[in-house]
Amino acid sequence: SPTTNWSDTTFTSSAVNGLPYGHALATVFTNGIPGVSSVVDIVSSNNVNLSGLVISSAPLSPAFASGTTSYTSTVPYTTTSVTVTATLADSTSSLKINGITVTSGSASGAISLTVGSNTINTVVTAQDGVTTRTYTAVVTRTAPSANANLTNLSLSAGTLSPVFAGGTTSYTTSVVNATTSITATPTLADT
After folding, report:
1. Alpha carbons 2 and 64: distance in angstroms, whole number
2. Which is the most buried residue in 48, 51, 106, 178, by most CB within 10 A?
3. Which of helix, strand or coil describes residue 132?
4. DSSP state of 8
5. pLDDT (average), residues 165-170
6. What is the rounded CA–CA span in Å between residue 170 and residue 71?
7. Which residues share a beta bridge with 73?
8. Cα–chain-centroid distance for residue 104?
9. Pick from 27, 20, 11: nearest CA to 42
10. For residue range 62-77, what is the model confidence (pLDDT) as tens digits?
11. What is the pLDDT of residue 116?
């Protein structure tokens, strides 16, 4: 039977107009001379994993793991928006964050947060165009504080009477006649 010296053989494949997606024309060259050509199936990746997921100002719980798709995070009321940085495990995949295409490893645009639960979906689509995986993060923005208490109240001149106490809301002070103004400095209990 004939033997082939594979060191002298090369293979090429190229897309051909009219062939469906996922197919190419492969040609065997021996010693630089084209030989057999055949239509071959090209296997596309179906990897839909992320290798990283970070939400600005919002640590994920649990900590990110590629196989985990549900996360939560809580941010203070003062945080009005976040960005999401998702990194693809397979660069041939693509991703969308809340329906907007984003480049792997780059931060999304600002995502506004309302008070309460905010769901952020990161959808990875594999190279095959069919396989998808959704990573979901529910970011909870806390309500504004209802704590209007003080932990201290100091004056630039004079002394408070009675001595400051968190539950007391009425004070008096006496100053010398030459004093034309004083400054009251409150310290909030909830910063």
Report:
1. 56
2. 48
3. strand
4. G
5. 88
6. 47
7. 139
8. 11
9. 20
10. 999 999 999 999 999 9
11. 97
